[in-house]
Specification:
Helix content is 40%, strand content 18%. The protein is an alpha/beta fold. Strands 8-7-9-10-11 form a five-stranded parallel beta sheet. It has a four-stranded mixed beta sheet with strand order 3-4-6-5, with helices on both faces. A two-stranded antiparallel ribbon has the order 1-2. A hairpin with a 4-residue loop joins β1 and β2. The radius of gyration is 20 Å and the shape is globular. 41% of the residues are buried. The model has no long low-confidence stretch (mean pLDDT 88).
Length: 255
């Protein structure tokens, strides 16, 4: 339950002051021994804790998902395997899994999405990382427009979509190989660009290091760079930027 929800229930007489006092007296995390779940993270930062699934023991993953789902009514996991999906689905049948992005999630029904984030890729091989970014942003309540396969090897494809990209509060540019897409987009739009280097490419791309160095050394202004293949990090940062854009442009505030 969110802080505001509890206060509204007290105001409406649905929850007593004593019950609310017990709720607020809880530790801001749940100590599970092997993990300490940050159940009040959304109160502090505006977004709930997300589960990085890869490498977790089956029972740990299962109990963490169950706890966060019980606390928040929804839960997002990244870098999940199909086997982990099957495991969690036994306890949470409504769980969804996207094999491309490896996103494992349950969302609250009827969730509204606001603002606009443009998620762009240089090629179709970059889509798994882009989808991790896009679905992360959507989970956090943002409207996302996907604009895929507009790399610089056919720059007319990008130029045909520039007007749409300019309407976004934030752009996520996902590219492997030499990673030039972020620089080109950065030179065409006034909105912030989050560059995501991917490990897509031939030998000299060095698993994404070539794209990473290109993006870090971009001469275009307004570009921030996340780690190689870090779609989640880009989606999170884009969500923060989009939220700020909504506040300044339309007086929007989180409820």
């Amino acid at each position: 339950m969110e802080l505001r929800d509890m206060l509204e229930k007290v105001k409406a007489g649905e929850v007593s002051v004593e019950e609310a006092e017990k709720y607020f007296a809880k530790k801001p995390f749940e100590d599970m021994g092997y993990a300490k779940l940050d159940t009040w993270r959304e109160i502090r930062s505006g977004y709930p804790e997300v589960v990085y699934c890869s490498g977790k023991a089956d029972q740990h993953l299962l109990h963490i998902f169950e706890m966060l789902y019980r606390e928040n009514g929804e839960v997002l996991g990244t870098r999940a395997s199909k086997e982990q999906y099957e495991l969690v689905r036994e306890r949470i049948p409504e769980i969804d899994y996207d094999e491309s992005s490896r996103i494992l999630k349950v969302e609250k029904p009827g969730k509204k999405r606001a603002g606009k984030i443009a998620v762009c890729t240089a090629g179709t091989a970059d889509i798994p990382v882009a989808e991790e970014a896009a679905q992360t942003a959507e989970y956090f309540g943002n409207y996302v427009e996907r604009i895929y396969d507009i790399g610089v090897s056919g720059i007319h494809r990008l130029l045909a979509k520039v007007d749409d990209i300019r309407l976004a509060n934030c752009v996520v540019a996902v590219a492997g190989m030499e990673g030039a897409l972020a620089s080109v987009i950065g030179g065409l739009v006034e909105n912030p660009v989050i560059a995501v280097p991917t490990s897509v490419g031939y030998g000299a791309s060095m698993g994404g290091i070539s794209a990473l160095l290109t993006m870090i050394n971009s001469c275009a202004n307004g570009i921030a760079v996340v780690n190689i293949d870090n779609g989640y990090g880009a989606g999170y940062m884009a969500s923060q930027i989009n939220r700020l854009g909504m506040r300044s442009e339309r007086g929007w505030r989180q409820k």
